[in-house]
Write a structure and sequence with these properties.
Blueprint: H1 10-13, H2 21-27, E1 30-40, E2 54-65, E3 71-76, E4 83-84, E5 94-95, E6 97-105, E7 108-111, E8 117-118, H3 121-131, H4 143-152, E9 155-163, E10 168-171, E11 176-178, E12 180-190, E13 197-201, E14 214-215, E15 220-227, E16 234-235
Amino acid sequence: MPTPRSSSTAAVQDPNPSERISTLVPAADLIVYGTVESVGPEITDLDQDAFPAQVATVRVSEVMKGEAPETITVTKPEDTYYALVGEANDSYDAKHEGIFVLKAAGEGYELFGYVGLHDDSGAQRAFARVLAGQSEDIPGASRAQLAEWVDEAEIIVFASVKGDPDDVTLRTPRVGFSSSATLTPIEVVKGEMPEPMKVVQGPQPETPGGTWGFPVGDGQTGVFFIDTSSGTPTVINTTEPSQINRRQIPLGG
C-alpha cells in the first residue's frame, strides 16, 4: 500500500481510510516505537487540508520489525493528513509519538501507508498480535460465552466508564487505560445498580498486546458483567465492553 502522493487533497479528505495492519506489517521494512525529537520545517498552521513534506529525527525506544539504531531519520511525504511535531498536543492533525511504519529511503526511512504513525491503543494491540503471528482482530464474545457471564454476574449494566488515573496499566500518547474504574449506569440489564460503582478488572486471557482496559478519558460506554461475590465488584468480561451489544445478551435461558 503506497503512501498517497497525489497533488490534490482527495487523499486527505478522509483522514483515516481503512488500512489493515495485517497488510502493512509484511510490506514494511522497519516498524519501531519512537518519539520525534526534532522536525523541519516546523508546522505552525495546523488548520489546513494538507501539510508539506517534513524530515524528523526519531528516537527509537523499541524495534518491532527489522533493525534500527537509537535514532533514525524519517521523512513524512507531503499530502498526508498530519504533521509530525516535537511535542504532544490534542490535535489529530499532529502526532509525535507511537508506532512508525516505515519503508527504506536512501540513508533514512519514509512513513508508509495512509496513517504512517500509529498512536492509539487499538493499533498498538493489533500490531502486537500481527507481529506475533496472530489475527489482527480479537474475536467477539460468542453466545455461549455471553450466557456464561450472565450466570456468573450479579449485575449486568450498560454504563459510562471512567478509569482510575492512578491505576494506569497501559498509556498511549493520547489516552491511558486502567485496571480499575467507576461505572455510571445508563441501563441496568440484570440486578440493581442505582448509582455509580467502583469496579476492578477480572483476570484477562494471555493475548499479545493485551485485551482491554478501562479508558481514563471521558465519553466511553460499554456493557459490563459484574461479579460482586468476592466483596470487590469485579468486571468479568474478557471481551471489550464497548464491542458487546446489550440486545444480544441471552437473558432467561
